[in-house]
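From the shared-data thread, chain only:
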Amino acid sequence: MTYKHLLLLTILWSGALTAAAQSGSIVGTRTVTAADKLLPDGTRTSDFGDNPHGLVMFTADGHYSVESYRADRAKFSSDDRAKVSTEEYKNAALSMSVHFGRYTVDPVKHTISFQIDPASWRNWDDTVQVRTYEVKNDELSWKVARRPDGSIPITVLRTASAGN
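Structure, as tokens:
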């Protein structure tokens, strides 16, 4: 076997492993059922209100999209974006978390690595963020890195049904 054939086989084999990792238990569309935070004292509380809204999609070829919103987001005072107050924009920014890009899964370490393309939080653009995850039946959850205030955001998702 020639070097070129070995190289080709290696590339195909590694691609198959990546595809197998992506086609595991997290591929599909899920709805956000909770957007909580774990406080430094161990208390778990809501981070995005009682009924957050959102949709998360993981494709078998390694793309993803995350959209999470507070259910009780206030409407803007105007339909003209130039006439909305700074406070309204701040509240809007704090009531959502949106990003998309590519992802990989390490099923041994139970981690998802998000290669974030753009995000609603600009500082996340072009970063890689690793989340520990857990799958129980049709529920997928992950933890975000500890925030400066010591809290740890936790996202909880359920497999989307045709009625969602």
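The beta strands are 28-38, 44-46, 53-58, 63-69, 96-106, 111-119, 127-136, 139-143, 152-159.
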